[in-house]
Amino acid sequence: MAVDPTGADLATLMDEDPGGPVVMLNLLRFAPDGRASYEEYSRAASRFLAEYGGELLYAGDGDTPLVAEAGQGWDAVLLVRYPSREAFRRMIADPGYREITALRSRALAEAVLQPTVPWGSGR
């Protein structure tokens, strides 16, 4: 299952950049005993988020899905706003940030990172 973006994923993210801020939807499914590792990653990542102008808009635990197929529920949902896709790209390329990504990778069994584009933005 996918957890970390690939180089091709990042190239697509940047090629499709409409400009302006981006809110990244994070859907997370934890590996067994992965929540503690993700919490450690989150604490360490907050410094980089602030440094690159990002802002955690929402973080919450997934509850029982109201409408979903079996297995489509998620353990946690985050919405993170970045001033641009370029800011996100620079953050994840930062050598200090790269040092903590193993915590995230180890914590997750599956993830979705989906950039969103505001309605009415012309796309």
Automatic annotation (TrEMBL):
Species of the source: Nocardiopsis lambiniae
Gene3D superfamilies named in the record: 3.30.70.100
Matching SUPFAM superfamilies: Dimeric alpha+beta barrel
Source taxon at top rank: Bacteria
Domain DUF1330: 35-108
Name of the protein: DUF1330 domain-containing protein
Pfam families registered for this protein in UniProt: DUF1330
PANTHER family: DUF1330 DOMAIN-CONTAINING PROTEIN, PTHR40257
